[in-house]
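Input chain follows. Return structure tokens only.
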Amino acid sequence: MDRMRQLAGAACGALAFMLLATGCAPDPTATPAPTGFSSEEEAFAAAEATYRAYVDALNQVDLSDPATFESVYAHLSGPALGDEKRSLTKLHADGWLVSGRSVVDGFYRVDEDELLAIACLDVSAVSLTDASGVSQVGAERPDVYAVQLRFTSSSEASPLRVSESTAIEDSRCA
């Protein structure tokens, strides 16, 4: 399991998108996400929409075509963006293939003061193979991962982005 997390971890829930998500350090210059929203509920709804759009973009990635990575990057900032770029670039360079779709099964608020959430990501339909066609999905991989997410404000055009993602254990995602 640790080997799977190392291989796919930098994908932040992507390529391992679905094999898992990686922990990232918070962006020290980022503003907490609720800034600019009329209520915490509105901010949380925007965070969920952002994460679902991110997962949708990951589901469209073709590792042989780096142009498909750009829509993934549009939903990220700070360390999460850097990690994702390194991961997708490496998987592309190594000739890996991903197939299947991941699904957000749940999305839960964690903190009222900061925009932190837990997402349950179902990766049961996702496969990842190396350049020689060997599956990189371990038999022990769970079908659903819990991912703790931090969101930050960015710009008016895209008010929220995922800035931090950490695979955790959470009973809601069992």
